[in-house]
Specification:
The chain has 254 residues and is mainly alpha-helical. It has one domain. 76% of the residues lie in helices and 3% in strands. The chain contains 10 helices and 2 strands; from the N terminus they run H-H-H-H-H-H-H-E-E-H-H-H. Strands 1-2 form a two-stranded antiparallel ribbon. It is globular, with a radius of gyration of 18 Å. It starts with a helix and ends with a helix.
């Protein structure tokens, strides 16, 4: 019953966050934001219960991030079309948030029959990898950064920063493999998946930079002053979590 209550709390938080995000991003009236942020997603609640439907949602998220990678490569071509249509922004918002929500619930639920806390520990492990990659990239880029990663998108990001992020994330991966008692034969697969998590978190970070450039804003909100806005805290998460759940499911790791 405790887990069911917790799921309801997560769902309530998700609904509120989605409504607020739809309201801020699309500049719609609150009733329309309520429609796009709650009524339509609510109609999919039963749909998400089915594993095949959840997998399809994750695959749609993966497809979006592959498209985002292409947009990064060809930027600034074709990118302006993304922000000229408010409905397009709503669709992109769904492709960002719905797969992330499915991934959060999916990872949190892993192994819950045998250990109530295992899924929470696994989710925290993945989040720490993402945050370590972001922190390591910032520190290494500031200290050693010379080679530009994507100068047209984010001039301050460098390849040296990426390598620093990979290194710090690697420390978290090593600690996680030891503390969470993964099987020895899973080590290689986990290292490969962790590298993929870091790569997609970078893609998420750069994609958010594209949106900020296209809309002509420096910070995505004032909720977290000095952090570039709230989206700067979740850009890597929205990209990496769906990939993580797909990878864990494919590799049979729980």
């Amino acid at each position: 019953s405790g887990f069911i209550t917790q799921k309801r709390q997560y769902k309530a938080l998700y609904v509120v966050a989605t409504i607020v995000l739809m309201w801020l991003v699309t500049e719609q009236s609150l009733p329309m934001a309520y429609w796009h942020g709650f009524i339509l997603p609510q109609s999919f609640t039963e749909w998400f219960v089915d594993n095949q439907a959840a997998r399809l949602t994750l695959m749609l998220g993966l497809l979006w991030w592959l498209v985002a990678f292409v947009l990064l490569v060809i930027y600034p071509r074709l990118s302006k079309e993304l922000v000229t249509s408010k409905m397009m922004m709503v669709i992109i918002g769904w492709l960002l948030l719905l797969p992330t929500w499915v991934a959060v619930v999916g990872i949190r639920s892993m192994g819950i029959v045998f250990d109530h806390n295992h899924g929470a520990e696994l989710l925290l492990f993945v989040l720490l990898i993402i945050w370590a990659a972001d922190t390591g990239a910032f520190m290494a880029g500031k200290k050693f950064g010379k080679t530009k990663l994507a100068p047209l998108v984010s001039p301050k990001k460098t390849w040296e920063g990426v390598l620093g992020g990979v290194a710090l994330a690697g420390v978290i991966v090593a600690l996680g493999i030891y503390l969470l008692h993964f099987k020895p034969e899973q080590t290689t697969s986990l290292i490969g998946l962790s590298l993929l998590i870091v790569i997609f978190s970078v893609v998420g970070d750069l994609t958010e930079s594209i949106f900020k450039r296209l809309t002509g804003i420096k910070d995505s909100g004032k909720i977290l002053p000095g952090h570039g806005g709230i989206l700067d805290r979740i850009d890597g998460v929205t990209a990496a979590l769906p990939i993580t759940l797909l990878g864990l499911s494919f590799l049979g790791i729980q």
